[in-house]
Design brief:
The chain has 14 helices and 24 strands. By secondary structure, it is of the alpha/beta class. The protein has an 8-stranded mixed sheet with strand order 7-6-11-1-13-16-2-17, sandwiched between helices. Helix 5 packs parallel to helix 8. The radius of gyration is 22 Å and the shape is globular.
């Protein structure tokens, strides 16, 4: 659906990454590997996991990411622990899960300004120090730790890096939510003037430049490097060439731009993040024209991000250490988006919800010793990243017994093997368990009384358009038991799906669940049958 001519121009002008092999790959030992962690803010899994026509566009234009995926293992059913930028990032970087304190709205890994070193002054619970971070772990094992570009954590002071250079982000409130960079504005960086039709004008474009410089500077070191990418987070400010990849006439609203049938009111927020921008109404829906422009702006921002990632990976492929080993052949690459993002599905925008569109998030891991081009649909979650990197580098798990995820290395070698039977996410007063077939959520009040439930059968209703909790009391009861009772039960429910005495190895036995009951008519609500009804 996108403009083919513009796509070809983009491929020629950009630095599309191509898979390159080297004989040196076989000689690289785990202890010699670098780690490049690429965190992308608000990145939907639409780039690879779904691929369906969501808003008139079959797939976003991401040639560099596509090439990376062909050289990596793709975790297509990966979920974040919490759909909040700061909290999700801290959860991943510490390998620990969020939870709600009894009788409170908050708990660990919830607050916006997450901090590791001091108590948060704005929220009663703030963030609890779990005793270790990924950065600290690899520093102890002799790695140079480097953070460049945008955010790895939300707050730059959340960890201690050997080298950190953060590029200031665009304003994130009180400005227009989108802007087509036409060359009319300029900025000077390192005595060079750039206009807003150029990538380097924007924080992520300059962040890619800085990251490439760091790769060169540390080419003879063993390093753990974070390249944080701000976009496609609002505002959607990127050069016009990326907007041109998505002509206006090809953009449409999602087919399920309606609340799910029987959706509890607690599940449908007011998307306050977007409301902070100029020209966005303080309540009620967006008009269709503005909604389509924002969808187009999000897609343009993803293509802009793709170009920056391509430059960084291309630098790895063209940089050698003093022994003549290409850095790409000795570098583990982890690409992840901190959570999903809504583009008017269920009338929602942004990420703060317990729906799949908020909780499902990209995770891609490329290890030079493991064949790429693999995809697994086994359930994974962000707390799994920390122990995975420990195993891939041979550094072993940290001494402190705080990791709450499972190493994905066995799954990288055998993507179809039996695996963990459930993963867990939460947002403020809502907790969600996701199994191979279902997503079940409970919403509570401050006193921890359940006030709303959602149950979606992903085998027939993957877009979660029809809540069937009320007509499935037995199945809901069974899933509720797996989710856990009360804040303490929910906090520890994940333990029933792993062997804690064996490094949280997955328990692969499926839980015994009742067969679902489906509505007799009007179900499921899919693009096909909605179109047929019309």
């Amino acid at each position: 659906m996108f403009n083919q001519n513009n796509y070809i121009k983009y491929l020629c002008a950009g630095l599309a990454v191509t898979g390159i092999s080297s004989a040196s790959e076989a000689t690289i030992q785990p202890s010699e590997k670098n780690i490049l962690m690429i965190s992308v803010d608000d990145l939907r899994p639409q780039i690879f996991a779904h691929g369906q026509n969501l808003h008139g566009i079959e797939k976003m234009v991401t040639p560099n990411l596509d090439a990376l995926l062909e050289d990596s293992v793709v975790f297509a059913e990966n979920y974040c622990q919490v759909p909040v930028c700061a909290a999700s990032r801290l959860s991943l970087m510490t390998g620990t899960r969020p939870y709600k304190e009894p009788g409170q709205r908050w708990g660990r890994h919830w607050t916006f300004n997450s901090r590791l070193d001091v108590a948060n002054g704005r929220e009663p619970a703030g963030i609890n120090h779990p005793g270790d971070t990924m950065v600290a772990h690899f520093r102890r094992h002799g790695y140079k730790t480097i953070s460049v570009g945008g955010k790895i954590y939300h707050d730059a002071r959340d960890d201690k890096w050997d080298d950190m250079l953060r590029v200031p982000n665009d304003p994130w409130r009180g400005v227009v939510p989108y802007e087509i960079g036409d060359g009319s504005k300029t900025i000077t960086r390192n005595s060079v003037e750039y206009d807003n039709s150029q990538d380097e004008y924007y924080p992520d474009g300059w962040g890619a430049v800085v990251t490439m410089e760091k790769i060169e500077s540390y080419r003879n070191d063993r390093w753990f490097m974070g390249f944080g990418v701000y976009k496609p987070h609002l505002p959607f400010w990127v050069p016009q060439k990326y907007w041109d990849l998505y002509p206006e006439e090809d953009i449409s609203l999602p087919y399920n731009n309606f609340p799910p049938v029987n959706a509890p009111p607690q599940s449908l927020g007011n998307w306050g993040e977007l409301r902070n921008y100029t020209g966005i109404p303080s309540s009620g829906p967006l008009d269709d024209a503005l909604a389509k422009t924002l969808i187009r702006g999000y897609y343009a921002s993803v293509s802009f991000v793709d170009a920056q990632i391509g430059k960084v990976i291309d630098k790895l492929k063209n940089t050698y250490d003093e022994d003549g080993v290409r850095l790409y052949d000795k570098t583990i690459i982890v690409l992840w988006g901190d959570h999903g993002w809504n583009l008017s599905e269920h009338t929602l925008w942004c990420k703060h919800a317990n729906y799949r569109t908020s909780l499902q998030a990209p995770l891609v891991i490329r290890d030079p010793s493991i064949p790429g081009g693999r995809k697994t649909r086994r359930l994974t979650e962000f707390v799994d990243v920390y122990p995975t990197l420990c195993e891939l580098t041979g550094t072993g798990l940290p001494d402190s017994d705080h990791l709450e995820g499972t190493s994905l290395v066995p799954l990288m070698h055998d993507p179809q093997r039996p695996w963990k039977q459930a993963v867990f996410s939460r947002f403020i007063l809502g907790d969600t368990i996701i199994t191979e077939h279902y997503s079940y959520s409970e919403f509570v009040d401050v006193d921890d009384v359940v006030v709303g439930r959602m149950l979606y059968d992903h085998t027939v209703d993957p877009d979660e358009n029809y809540n069937i909790a009320d007509i499935n009391p037995e199945l809901s009861r069974e899933l509720s038991a797996l989710l856990g009772s009360g804040p303490v039960g929910k906090r520890n429910a994940w333990r029933n799906f792993v062997d804690e005495d064996n490094a949280n190895a997955p328990i692969t036995t499926p839980p015994a669940l009742s067969a679902p009951v489906h509505p007799s008519s009007g179900y499921p609500l899919t693009r096909a049958n909605i179109g047929a009804q019309e």
